[in-house]
Amino acid sequence: MSRALASPSGEGGVRGRGRRACASHHSLPGAGAQRRARFARTGTYPLPLVDERVLDELRVIAMTTETPAGVLERDTIPARVAELLADPDDRGARASFAAWAGRTAKRAPTAEMRSAARVMLTLVQEDAPAAAVYAVDPPVRIDVNVRALLAALVVAGGLGTAGVMAARAVTTPKLDVAAPVGTTPVGPVEDGRLAFTAIGPATLLRRERWTLDGRDVTRLVERHGRHAVLRPGRLDEGGHELVVSAGGGFLGATGRRSISFTVDLTPPYLDVPGPLRTSAWQPLRVSGRTDDDAQVTVAGVRAPVSDGRFSVLLAAPQPRVVSIVARDPAGNVTQEQQPVSIAPRRPPEPIRAVHVTADAWANATLRRGVLALIAQHRINAVELDLKDEGGIAGWNPPVPLARRIGAAQPIYDLAATVRKLHALGVRVIGRLVCFRDPILAHAAWKAGRRDEVVQTPSGGAYAGYGGFTNPASPAVRAYNVALAVAAARDGVDDVLYDYVRRPDGPRATMRFPGLHGSVSDTIVGFLRQTRLALEPYGTFLGASVFGVAATRPGEVAQDVPQMARQVDYVAPMVYPSHWNRGEYGVPDPNAQPYLIVARALADFQRDVAGTPARLVPWLQDFSLGVAYGPRQVRAEIAAARHDGIDEFLLWDPAVTYTAAALDPDARPAAPAR
Q1: Are residues 367 and 499 in the same domain?
Q2: Could you please report the per-residue DSSP string of 559-602?
């Protein structure tokens, strides 16, 4: 039990003044002039009969002083006081009690017990000097102001037992202890870093006794001037109590401050059923269970917790892996990683398409060849140029800039073509060459809008490809998006970007005015801008990429995994004739179309896994160094199917395709409208 009659804050009484504290020496009521004269001569009072109020004080001390472990039962304060109270007027009993108190005042294992013994010794010992009251071990000494002592005792005597108790409370040492703990449990971050600080006069700090969970840790306390600091180090999980006490008050009153806290090192419960699944461009719902008091974030989004359950919707596009984090009030964390499975948007049937230029579609002979493939059910989609490598938009789009710079040319009627092909159940894919654009590059440079053009390090126009526009330019991006939206309004099913990259070659040989971040990031941002612009029309978005982009994305700034998060499909150009010998371990890729296509597409499959995109590869139906016929084209198609890809786009710049390479099983890929 605590001997302190402290306030609820744990602070009792008033603070001592400086190093010398005023203490009260007990004065028995009724003492006369002779006793005062003797005190003046010798400094001691004669031992009178024990007053009942003194006995009450002894009883209080016995009840409120903690008995440390290891003290014999007969030498405990309650036992010794009980023995004295059995016959308080027996001088022999009082002498025996005084002798015990004297020994205990010097040898007791705790400061509190030594302080109590000294107070009791003062109460009963005939020859105890008035200034001999010590609160704690030497060398700390509390000097007694005798006049204040006599005044306090007179007041205490007049008040009886209640007055003694009140006087003790008023003079109880005030303990000012700063605790870095509260109602929230101590967690893994704070554990091992706790520092409890007591503030006060050096004399008070030296009298303080510190215990942690009943174990005396005073020897671990560091004292620096008016500060005493205890750093307990790492603690076991569970409840703990730190007690700081100090004697020195009236009649041995002890100040006491108790701080209770809990250490919690157990991570919260977290259960998220997976894998997570959603459809392309649809929100993803993530639900799970956790502790009631945990806070949960899903992919950085706060998820409200109610009765241990949480649920949140993540807007598209989602990451490949969603991180779910539960954190409890103590700071313990449980984290779970859930892969996301996204079902890409698909046409009614797998795409089997051929590339057709604007001029080829306007040419009756070439157009008839394409229509024949449709009639034979060898293809079910036509990829038609919206803007080609020369910057020509052959369908005369209603885009003011295209008409102003001479890019819009009336080579064919897009809206009429879409209606005709849809009537045949054929899907229309509009190919739009983005940043390779000589017409826009020359017009912008001439007009002084040079930031719209890729430049050399010295500030000249980049000459490659006849002119390459700057993907970091908002005006260039807006122009291409405007063309894509105009084509969507005319009914195309897909917009397939080509040259959605920087020029190939050393990055140091080119500048991109206004670029923030990497060119790869700019390309991804442009694809996102287009996807959002096409969303109201339901138009699919594709991106053509270099065959080496899966292994060397930096060569042309095509980060396939990131691009795949913004498009419906990626179209790798895996033409066998475009690979170097030995690439992917294939000795002669052009002569071994199956091997090179199968191995290259396997890499691209890994790149798009977990994204909203599927693969629709560009395959070669032209001869370059090696004659290509039905066998070679069929080998490419078979290689794609080996990798689980049943779609393709055939490229022949002459628009004369090998019908014998194509099976007549292409079902309509777009419903008749």
Answers
A1: yes
A2: -HHHHHTSSSEEEEE--GGGSPTTGGG-S-GGG-HHHHHHHHHH
Looking at the structure, do residues 382 and 401 belong to the same domain, yes or no? yes
> Does the residue 22 lie in any domain?
no
Nearest to 562 by CA among 599, 530, 601, 521: 521
CA distance 277 to 274: 8
pLDDT score of 194 more than 60: yes
Residue 170 burial by Cβ neighbours in a 10 Å radius (0-12, 13-18, 19+): middle
Amino acid at 125: Q
Q: pLDDT tens, 629-665?
A: 999 999 999 999 999 999 999 999 999 999 999 999 9
Amino acid at 543: A
What distances in angstroms separate CA 294 from CA 289, 306, 499, 658, one per listed residue?
Answer: 10, 10, 49, 64
Domain that holds residue 329: 270-343
Whether residues 253 and 274 share a domain: the answer is no
Whole-model pTM above 0.85?
A: no
Q: Are residues 278 and 239 in the same domain?
A: no
Closest alpha carbon to 247 in 149, 107, 105, 147: 105
- Tell me if 481 is assigned to some domain: yes
- Token readout for 156 is 């205490």
How far, rounded to the nearest angstrom, does the alpha carbon of residue 47 sit from its chain's CA centroid? 74
In eight-state DSSP terms, residue 310 is E
Q: Are residues 557 and 444 in the same domain?
A: yes
DSSP letter for 242, please: E
- Residue 181's contacts (CB-CB under 8 Å, 6 or more residues apart) are 194, 259, 261
Residue pLDDT, tens place only, 395-420 = 999 999 999 999 999 999 999 999 99
Phi and psi torsions of 370, nearest 5°: -70, -45
The CATH number assigned to the domain holding 222 equals: 2.60.40.10
In terms of domains, do 297 and 388 share one?
Answer: no
> Token pair for residue 35?
């006793």
Classify 176 as helix, strand or coil: strand
Give residue for tokens 């004659």.
627
Residue 531 and residue 386 share a domain: yes
Q: In total, how many domains does the chain have?
A: 4
- Is there a contact between 249 and 255 (Cβ–Cβ < 8 Å)? yes
User: Is 5 part of any domain?
Assistant: no
Structural element, H or E, at residue 541? strand 540-546
- AA identity, residue 121: L
